[in-house]
Design a protein that fits this description.
With about 160 residues, this protein is mostly helical. The protein has eight helices and no strands.
Length: about 160
């Protein structure tokens, strides 16, 4: 699948998302790690677009924490009651992609196919994340007060 990803998007998916997953103590790469990878580089067009919405890396982490608090509260658990995961030491093998990341990558590919784009870029990845109907990323973006439709429209403009 990654042969259609441009170098920059591949780096975001493989290296940066892997690093984010490791830093947060996750055994798999999930959609939130992809979002953190995109937000973590404000020198890119997608990073700048996210930062303009208050979603630089710190903003995404804050939104994810709010989402976690809301999800835990829904089942009567407070954030203080949960033991945070211990960040994993870097493993020699790559972390596998979890279901939410695989779905986001699939939606990114479908966005490129629909637009008849030959290469998949960071903007396609962002569209793949924004088009999720359920999961951590949409809930975190809602918790941050982000208008996903407006952000998706801005992302489409990046693609031309």
């Amino acid at each position: 699948m990654f042969e259609r990803f441009d170098h920059d998007a591949r780096r975001a998916v493989v290296r940066a998302a892997e690093r984010e997953a490791a830093e947060l103590g996750s055994s798999t790469i999930q959609a939130e790690h992809l979002l953190l990878a995109l937000a973590g580089d404000p020198s890119t067009a997608t990073g700048a677009l996210l930062a303009a919405e208050g979603l630089d890396r710190a903003g995404v982490l804050q939104a994810l924490e709010r989402e976690t608090e809301r999800s835990l509260a829904a089942v009567g658990v407070g954030l203080a009651d949960v033991v945070p995961p211990v960040p994993a030491t870097p493993a020699r093998r790559r972390r596998p992609f979890g279901a939410s990341a695989k779905s986001a990558l699939h939606r990114a590919v479908m966005a490129a196919v629909a637009r008849e784009d030959r290469r998949i870029t960071r903007a396609h990845l962002l569209l793949g994340l924004l088009r999720a109907d359920r999961g951590t990323v949409p809930r975190a973006l809602a918790a941050a007060g982000v208008d996903r439709g407006a952000l998706a429209a801005g992302t489409e403009r990046l693609l031309g």
